[in-house]
Amino acid sequence: MEYSRLPLVVLLAVALTDATASAQQVIEAEKYAVASGHEAATTIGLEVLRDGGNVIDAAIATSLAVGVAEPYGSGLGGKLILLYREAATGKVYSIVALCTSPADLDPKEFTQLSSAERKIGYKSVGVPGLVAGLDEAYERWGSKPWQSLVEPAAQLAEDGIEIDATMQGLYKSHVSDLQKDPEASDLYLYEGELPPIGARLKNADLAATLRVIANEGGRAFYEGTTAKNIVRAAQKAGAAMSVDDFRNYQADFGEPLSVEYRGYRIYSCPPPLTGGATVLAVLKAMEQQPPLGADASFLTYANRMGRTLLCLYPQIQAELADADTSPSDAEAMLTQQAAERLAAAASQVDPQNPYPKTEKVDAAADGLPAASTTHLVVADSAGNMVSLTQSLSLHFGAAVVAPGTGFLLNDSMSNFSTHDPENVNHVGAGKRARSTIAPILVTQGDRAVLTLGIPGGQRIPTTTTQLLWQFFDRGQSLKETFAAPRFHLMRPVTAKQPFNLMEFEKDAPASWDQELAGLGWKTKRYPRNGHYFGGGNAIEIAETGKLIGVADPRRTNFVAGD
């Protein structure tokens, strides 16, 4: 990795600047809009639209650029989930490109690895899905030359990304992991140590890999030198990955899950994802209860939603994963009868003793604080919309880079359950671990209304549900919706964790702790930033056709449009 350092006075100026000060957070546009986790990526996507590309073209270019600009959160070595609404037909489609475990994996051997080995190193790596997911979208709906969508990301990698305070903050707790892999250390650290603020991270290897993809197509990632380099490094480290695992990889294309809610249709993605089903089931159940409108106390909503989640979590954990029965189980959770049952159960549940304790709770990585994703949205005034989430699983993924490739690899194997062989998400060969990711699209009749999504690991479904409630039930603007305090009901990932821990942001009213305690909840506060509760993006399409884009102020997200 080549780093260039800025003069000390510039470094100090950057260091003293609020990381979010330059983030553009709200825009109105007439033709189209893009929002992502980084200004450079948003700008690249917008230029594609200005050059006559469609929303899929823009999403592809933005996705690849985000992987360069935020290498700690996503990239070529990770997974991708995409929802697309096609204005011409009014149809909504889903592409799920989760990472896959090796076909020759020995599940028993994997369960005997240490917790650290299941999160860091090549044995935690699944076959990446991001490139296949983008390739699937392009083959179905892309309009611009593929090369023109990939080259901007390659140029960005070549020119480099400046290390800002937010990026350095994420680095701090992962330097020791990156130091364990010579290639990762060389590419992503500065002389083996924490990169200074203001340094420019240039990545010639990543630029070269992207240009191979640009010139030879998405399948070149799975059938060419890149795959061979990854497999060679993985096998050298004792992992079971093979070139056939890459050659056989395909993204899952199909129909999304959806429910009617308050006169709107809300879409999200199907299993192995659990996030979408969680959001939709909670909304549908809460719709069965008296509405909580604009004047309702936020705590009243938190208590109601928390009780609903207490009753839903066990079912989600027991039924949804990469299993033949999971798609039908997810659909069954979203019926009117299921919503009525869930609402009735939620009204009776005791937050302090909701369901029997078990020693077989699994600490899958999507429940950990360091779970990392990024979300981008694209929309135009015709009603075409994309909602796209991509991830390495934990920050910096497995903290390894195969020589010659330039990108960090995922640690998606850490999302499997390992303690209970009967668990539907138990680790297996050729299997895709479930994820809490939950991209959202909303329509009303034949009108496109909203594209929205947020990162944040286990917090994704709860935060997404809150955002939709703020927007549709309370009638808040998108800006107000994203600015409101957030809470999360912790799903226990160890047998010692409580069922009733309500987490929320530090700037929430001081009275919340006492009031929630009176309702049976334990509480814990977190800083108001994007590290824990995530930083999402959204675009609303008003009835006039005007687009209103919002980038979450908790991260250095950026929204732009024309």
Automatic annotation (TrEMBL):
Pfam families, per database record: G_glu_transpept
Record keyword Transferase present: yes
Gene Ontology MF, one: hydrolase activity
Encoding gene, per UniProt annotation: ggt_1
Family: Belongs to the gamma-glutamyltransferase family.
Organism, as annotated: Bythopirellula goksoeyrii
Gene3D superfamilies for the chain: 1.10.246.130, 3.60.20.40
EC number: 2.3.2.2
SUPFAM superfamilies: N-terminal nucleophile aminohydrolases (Ntn hydrolases)
InterPro entries to which the protein is assigned, alphabetical: GGT_bact, GGT_lsub, GGT_ssub_C, Ntn_hydrolases_N
Full protein name: Gamma-glutamyltranspeptidase
Annotated signal peptide: 1-23
Top-level taxon of the source organism: Bacteria
Assigned keywords, A-Z: Acyltransferase, Hydrolase, Signal, Transferase, Zymogen
